[in-house]
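Hey, can you fold this?
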Amino acid sequence: MCVAALAWSAPAGAQAPFDVEDVLSYSFASGLVAASSADRIAWIENERGARNVWIASGPSWEGRSLTSFLDDDGQEISSLAFTHDGQSLLFVRGGAPNRQGEVPDPLSTTDEEERAVWVVSVDGGEPRKVIDGGGFAPAPDAPRLAYARGREIFVIDLEEGAEPTRIARIRGSAGSLAWSPDGARLAFVSNRGDHAFVGVVEPGGGQVNYLDPSVARDGSPAWSPDGRRIAFLRTPNERVVHMFAPRREALPFSIRVADVATGEAREIWKADEGVGSAFSGINASNQLFWGAGDRIVFPWEGDGWKHLYSIPAAGGRATLLTPGAFEVQ
């Protein structure tokens, strides 16, 4: 009763109650990225359903919007990435297509919505469409990007009016594009249904070299800092995998490191049988990270929780990096 009396006796100038509209209108930030060659960060801001690209630069780090999409139209912004010099930002606008190739159109507009890759200067100005579709890999050495469409891989410069150049046509479908640190080569995954290869091709085209091909599913290529080796995941193919059923165990996955010059690879680590033998990934563009000290970071459910581990690129025991009763996402 005392609490109720105090509540009802609040002064007229007290703060307005917090209602559902306040909750729904609260801005939400996601997709934080940092430029590798400038003191800049960027992120995606969702305010009242309108999604836009924001940026902040040092030393003040004051945020400002680079795009002006004003409507709550349900069109996602994703895959935010800086160009090699930190002077422009690339992003995908539009949701992922369904099996018929149709992209989301929550407002049921009379004009068909599109999914496309856009570029915008960090100094502002109107965003410019680069290519239709989503999924791209910005080059680390020049204003260009690579992208895959079905069985074909393309490279396109970011200057206005540039035309794409096809650098490879492969069997299966291409994906998981990853540039070498110097931009001289491009790694990719050739998905062929019940198996997949990791391949390497030069931006100028030419022969595709596949690294240690097998009947397993290879993926998540990660370059060494010197560009001489590639680490990748190898997951054995299993014919009977029940959809929507939890997978606690499987044929153990492994990590292999290949010499790019020769294509030869060796296993540097393999999951234990039983708990953690089935690979479970994290929400990231790649599942392997080649870091300092020539160590490779990867997710593993070795103790029943999904954690990050690291191993030497030369092989050895996995070191738990995120201990605790929680999961890394």
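Oh, and this one too while you're at it.
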Amino acid sequence: MSKKNGVPDRNFEFVEQHSWRKGEGKIVLETGAIGACTGIATFSRATKTGHLLHEPLVESTGDLDNFFKSVVESAGDPKKIKVWVRGAAFDSNANDYDYHYNEHVEAARQLVEEKIAELGLAKKQIDIEWAGEDESIDMSIDCHNGKFSEETTTYTVEEDF
């Protein structure tokens, strides 16, 4: 693998909201602005395959089922899968526009945790850190070495408008 300034060559692929991608080799999957959305990154050490999902308020299992089906099929050995979950931030201003918004966020968190539990992974394979109130997260997974990266920022309604 060639290097530029000591950094391995990588191809970056952005994962849009409402979607997920699978990557291998020199691919780095990245997504951003995960606030109330859920971000899930996975990596298989056995096959050097990564997945990244960016889904707003997960309320149905369709996309999660398809995502995790691909993760398991690509992994080779489920014992070598690592899963990172971020996002699903509560909104401090939710009562101003939707009294049930934070209830939907909590339901999304529970659904994601249930789906991950169905995979039967060991606790050490799972890293769930739900976002704090009004936080937004950018995240990436390097599909060559499994390096997971994240950057968290806190936002306010005034800053967004």
